[in-house]
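Handout, section B. The chain below has 41 residues.
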Amino acid sequence: RPLGEAFYGDYPAVRAMMESDDAREGPLAFAEKRPPEWKGR
C-alpha cells in the first residue's frame, strides 16, 4: 500500500498532526510569502 496510507492507518498521531490548523497554516503562509502564524493546534 502507498506510504501515505500506511502512515494514516498505522499511526493515528500522524493523521491528527496533518489535519491540524498548523499543518494548513505552514503551506498557506509559504504560498502567500509571509511568516506563519502558529497556533499550536
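Note. The chain has one domain: 1-41. Compare this with the example in section A.
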